[in-house]
């Protein structure tokens, strides 16, 4: 689907609008079940799962996300492929996430519950920065390494879901962040191909 959407000469705005609509609809549905999912996650907390989730969630930390992009950049340089768009996509999605967090100012779930957080987080909840970052990187990885795309998808989804399990995000936070990040990644792949600095 990504290949049909991205074309250096012509961009399919109908598909973009469709994706925005689906993203908004899924985020709304997730919002309606946020508290139910949160309360359920409390019933399945155990030390081993918390440890695994904490390790998985690290893939979405800014420093590790930039490390992934740095490795991707080195590979692109070695194989003489452009890479500027990937850096710009991550930068733009990070700025968007930061701005939305402070505009919406949604308290995190553990604050709503009045409990101690499983991991330390101090900023606002919506959207999930971790989900946004990993899903921004995702289209670049799946486009260049299609044989491993299932692995990349699974890892990205696990990072997003780990944020809900660890009670630092609502489901709607990660759904909205994932859609926003992926659309930004798609857009920058198209822009990069159009101007030959993908």
CATH superfamily: Phosphatidic acid phosphatase type 2/haloperoxidase
Distance between the termini: 18 Å
What's the Cα radius of gyration? 17 Å
CATH architecture: Up-down Bundle
Instruction: Indicate the multimeric state.
Output: single chain
Q: How large is the count of helical segments?
A: 10
Which H/E pattern describes the elements?
HHHHHHHHHH
* Number of extended strands: 0
What structural class is derived from the secondary structure elements? mainly alpha
SSE blueprint and pairings:
Elements: H1 2-5, H2 13-32, H3 34-43, H4 47-57, H5 62-78, H6 84-104, H7 109-113, H8 129-144, H9 149-165, H10 171-194
Give a structural overview.
The chain has 198 residues and is an all-alpha fold. It has one domain: Vanadium-containing Chloroperoxidase, domain 1 (Up-down Bundle). It has ten helices and no strands. The chain has helices at 2-5, 13-32, 34-43, 47-57, 62-78, 84-104, 109-113, 129-144, 149-165, 171-194. Helix 8 (129-144) packs antiparallel against helix 9. It is globular and about 50 Å long. It starts with a helix and ends with a helix. 33% of the residues are buried. Residues 1-8 have low confidence and may be disordered.
Concise account of the structure shown:
With 198 residues, the chain is mainly alpha-helical. It has a single domain, classed as Vanadium-containing Chloroperoxidase, domain 1 (Up-down Bundle), CATH 1.20.144.10. It is built from ten helices and no strands.
Throw out a few tags for this protein.
10 helices, Vanadium-containing Chloroperoxidase, domain 1, mainly alpha, single chain, 198 residues, disordered N terminus, 73% helix
């Amino acid at each position: 689907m990504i290949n049909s959407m991205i074309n250096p000469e012509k961009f399919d705005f109908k598909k973009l609008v469709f994706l925005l609509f689906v993203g908004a609809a899924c985020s709304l549905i997730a919002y309606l079940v946020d508290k139910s999912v949160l309360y359920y996650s409390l019933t399945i907390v155990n030390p081993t799962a918390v440890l695994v989730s904490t390790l998985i969630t690290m893939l979405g930390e800014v420093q590790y996300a930039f490390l992934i992009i740095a490795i991707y950049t080195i590979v692109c340089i070695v194989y003489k492929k452009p890479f500027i768009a990937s850096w710009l996509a991550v930068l733009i999605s990070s700025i968007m996430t930061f701005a939305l967090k402070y505009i919406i100012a949604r308290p995190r779930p553990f604050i709503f519950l009045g409990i101690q957080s499983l991991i330390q987080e101090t900023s606002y909840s919506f959207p999930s920065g971790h989900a946004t970052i990993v899903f921004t990187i995702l289209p670049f990885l799946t486009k260049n390494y299609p044989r491993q795309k299932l692995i990349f998808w699974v890892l990205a989804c696990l990072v997003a879901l780990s944020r809900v399990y660890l009670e630092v995000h609502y489901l709607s936070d990660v759904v909205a962040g994932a859609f926003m990040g992926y659309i930004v990644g798609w857009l920058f792949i198209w822009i990069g191909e159009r101007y030959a600095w993908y």
